[in-house]
Design a protein that fits this description.
- The chain is α+β, with helices and mostly antiparallel strands.
- The protein has 2 domains: 3-145, Jelly Rolls, CATH 2.60.120.10; 149-229, Arc Repressor Mutant, subunit A (Orthogonal Bundle), CATH 1.10.10.10.
- It is 39% helix and 25% strand.
- Strands 1-8-3-6 form a 4-stranded antiparallel sheet. Strands 2-7-4-5 form a 4-stranded antiparallel sheet.
- Helix 2 (110-119) packs across helix 3 (121-147).
- The structure holds a DNA duplex.
Length: 231
Amino acid sequence: MSHSSLAHAFPPSSTSTTGDNLNELLENFPLKNFKKGASIVKEGQTPKHIYYIQSGKVLTLTSYPNSEKVLANGLFVKGEFVNFQALTNSQPDNHSVKALSKVSVRQIPTIAFLSLMRQHQFLNQMVIHNIVRQLDQKTTHCHQTVLYNSNQRIVQFLLDYVSKAGERVGYEWVVRDFLTQAQIALLSNTGRQTVSTLLNDLRRENIIHFTRKYMVVRDLDLLKAYLLKAQ
DNA sequence: GCATTAACGCACG
DNA sequence: CGTGCGTTAATGC
């Protein structure tokens, strides 16, 4: 599937100093630290900053006035930008950003960021790359929400989560700072209890293991196979 | 039937 | 001790 590729890496064609250049560009902007669960961007504020994630995991959310629900937009990890809305003239909106783990981010004012983009070609490319990728993910995610049943959506989330935030340990994959089941439910458009039962089923089949702190994928192929079988 | 929701007891951190 | 988790039964589509 499309998710096995390391699509989130920056273009391999970039020079090896790309990361250093980026850090140099951003090093004078304030480095903000947040505790797990803290609010990085509050709802209802005009987006004024771009955030670059130095470490940790972040969740972006949208709330809708007519429904009480707050829906999850996406999960972002180290090396990604969030809040690109700030690059446009967007008004105060219903977007918010929350820390899913201990997080540190560079906070770059929109004006400064736009100016940096004008000066540095590689930053431009990086931003375009990020935006296209995010759009791609959104589209795919949207299609999957339509095509998949709830268990498949949860499995798809687990696969995405592992490919974004997992570390390889031998033949297994480990994700630390495992989300709560309620958060997984939000991200996969299912119910909390549905997540609970599926995770326990997968554990019984020895496909994954998990505690509240981490998840281990014992057999990635079997997990992927879950997407293929109907129920 | 498949999935979300309520409800409740349990236990992890 | 709180809140996150696991399970079952009820309800809805």
